[in-house]
Write a structure and sequence with these properties.
The structure holds 2 protein chains of 2 kinds. Chain A is of the alpha+beta class. Chain A contains 4 helices and 12 strands. The chains are: A alpha+beta, B alpha+beta.
């Protein structure tokens, strides 16, 4: 039901997700932020039940913080972070699976390049240039297939993301009025746009 | 190694499910703290991963599909149907100018039978925090009473009142830990603390959401219809209470599983107070 997708550009990654929190026929809230910051230069867009979303993202981000503290400020690259996440999903799979589908975007400050990873609840991991989780993939992948190319700028990537959002709002059965868009680049993680302020309560 | 939670290693069988659930839940709560025998069973993995926050997963219904011997298979084939818990209710709460209004009905139903028409669905946690009950009556009252104890303990050891966010988080963590055990809880933890008025919706899956307006229970959709249309920002207390009563009345009219009394509570900076109670049987409804 949730929409999470991402597009990589030259020097960063755009992550976008809807802001609706619903269960069965009820919408609980429409200002949820589903893209959580894992570290200073990486973020994870997660779709799935709110409990698993919160618990998994906090578990991963706190473990990453612990790693940094224990290893004298050494940060894990996005590649390492993605593999760590996948490892945790895989371990939990046969015990009590986390029902989360993830798009992880990060900027490697050492190598100076961005990367985007697609991860699903069965602990499959793929490095991609662009990707979407959930029903959004049916609508958005073709747009991204057509428009994405090497060496995009941030604005061009945001343009692709907004095209995808418009398409979802026209054709997707489930109403998702609000979307939040974040960018991960050399300056870290920041919010570009949101439909409803997540801090608004 | 950061230990986060302990779970019993054995999984309750289907046959003694209800007793097993209570025992397992009690064991999960009581066995906090490091257990050295259990630690050694994980040693193979953690020889190489010393510095990691450890969260064991599993237990509950996930493991109940594997059958290890014929006796268990035999026992499961003629199993007792699961217990019917009381689910029907309407509870709602929303913020107004200077506080929070909570309104609830008082019917507890077991299938088509009205078990009680005078249930207390609002349970106090501290002077400034209350919790509503929806879902399994026993589950809700048990866990909210635990919150009373935890809050008091926090107050005594920290020397300051507990915040609403913390209470809600404590409950959400417990429920997440026990999410395979078929608990049925949909509660709203609301109160006034140093951060102002806040309402948290917490349910048995472990979700915890902060918001301005929530309604929980079988009659929640009917109540929300009235609430969403007529609520405005910064209502005064009288208007807010009147709206709460109206929403519950409409929900009990349409929902078979809600009824009894309406009870309305108001939480202000000074604490919570019951402000209204009405027997719906005395209200003239066709």
């Amino acid at each position: 039901m949730d929409t999470v997708f991402g597009v990589e550009f030259d020097g960063g990654v755009i992550l976008a997700s809807d802001q609706t929190n619903a269960r069965s026929i009820l919408t609980y809230q429409t200002n949820l932020d589903k893209i959580t910051e894992l570290s200073s230069h990486s973020a994870m867009g997660i779709s799935g039940p709110n409990a698993d979303l919160v618990n998994f993202s906090e578990y991963i981000s706190k473990n990453l913080a612990l790693y940094e503290l224990s290893n004298d400020g050494l940060k894990l690259s996005p590649h390492a972070q993605a593999n760590f996440c996948r490892g945790e999903l895989a371990t939990a799979l046969r015990k009590g699976p986390y029902q989360v589908n993830i798009m992880l975007g990060g900027y490697d400050t050492v190598k100076g390049e961005a990367s985007l990873y697609w991860m699903d609840y069965l602990a499959a991991l793929a490095k991609v240039n662009y990707g979407a989780q959930g029903y959004a993939s049916s609508f958005c992948l073709s747009i991204m297939d057509r428009d994405w190319k090497e060496g995009l700028t941030c604005d061009e990537a945001v343009g692709i993301v907004e095209k995808c959002i418009k398409e979802l709002q026209v054709r997707f059965l489930i109403a998702q009025p609000n979307f939040i868009i974040k960018v991960v680049d050399k300056d870290g993680v920041r919010t570009l746009k949101f439909g409803a302020d997540p801090a608004d309560n | 190694l950061l230990q986060r939670s302990r779970r019993p290693m054995k999984v309750p069988s289907m046959k003694s499910k209800s007793i097993g659930v209570v025992a397992a839940v009690a064991a999960a709560i009581l066995s906090k703290g490091v257990n050295s025998e259990l630690l050694s069973s994980y040693s193979l993995r953690h020889k190489y991963l010393h510095n990691k926050i450890f969260m064991p997963r599993g237990g509950g219904l996930h493991n109940e599909n594997t059958i290890f011997d014929e006796n268990q298979a035999e026992a499961e084939s003629d199993s007792v149907p699961p217990l019917e818990f009381a689910h029907g209710t309407t509870t709602l709460s929303f913020t107004f100018d200077g506080g929070i209004v909570a309104a609830v009905d008082s019917r507890a139903s077991i299938g088509n039978f009205v078990g009680s028409k005078t249930t207390q669905k609002v349970l106090p946690i501290t002077d400034h925090i209350i919790g509503t009950m929806a879902g399994g009556a026993a589950d809700c009252s048990f866990w909210i009473r635990r919150l009373q104890a935890e809050s008091r303990h926090y107050e005594l050891s920290e020397g300051r009142p507990i915040s609403v966010a913390r209470v809600a988080r404590v409950l959400a963590d417990y429920l997440y830990e026990n999410r395979g055990f078929d608990l049925s809880i949909g509660t709203m933890i609301m109160g006034f603390d140093e951060y102002g008025p806040s309402i948290y919706y917490v349910d048995n899956s472990g979700s915890r959401l902060k918001g301005d307006l929530f309604s929980v229970g079988s009659g929640s959709t009917f109540a929300l219809g009235v609430l969403d249309t007529e609520r405005r920002r910064n209502m005064k207390e009288e208007e807010a209470v009147a709206l709460g009563i109206k929403a519950i009345r409409h929900a009990t009219f349409r929902d078979a599983f809600s009824g009894g009394y309406i009870a309305v509570y108001v939480i202000r900076e000074t604490g919570w107070k019951k402000v209204f109670s009405e027997d719906l049987a005395l209200v003239d409804k066709n």
